[in-house]
# Entry
Amino acid sequence: MLYRGAVAPEFRLPDADMEWFDFCSLRGRQAAVLFFYPRDNTPYCTLEAADFSDRENDFSDLGCVILGVSRDDCLSHADFRDKHGLSIRLLSDEHGEVCRKFGVSQFRERDGHKKLCIIRSTFIIDKNGIVQHALYDVHPKGHVTDVYQLVKTLDIKGKHHAHC
# Structure
């Protein structure tokens, strides 16, 4: 698990349009809200992604980009985005490497079997790449409003000195 003050792990993942996104590209430029969710097109995941999309401009005004990550593939992400009119960037971590780096992969009992699951989690990362908030096992209802309030308390438009 990651905690406040940790350096956020670097990663490079494809998005719903199969374009590569390099997390390092934000360094020194923008803060990020990185939210991990279990699956595209499920009720709670849809609620969370739609809420983040609805507030995307509010976060952008604070100098913060929203990124959603799940283990679904790029085509699933594109369908999810288009079906629900999502505007946020969805990243595909098919092999679960980034999920492991952020500590959001956990084994949980399902139908009598242990299964690797993605724990719904959100990270607020400043533009220097430092984790300011690590929220694990969150409930999506009202979550985006809570995250927005946390981002508002950060000085994420201040000066930077870090480089990748």
User: Anything to note?
Assistant: The chain has five helices and nine strands. The radius of gyration is 15 Å. Strands lie at 12-14, 20-22, 31-36, 64-70, 89-92, 105-110, 113-118, 121-125, 131-135. The first strand starts at residue 12 and ends at 14.
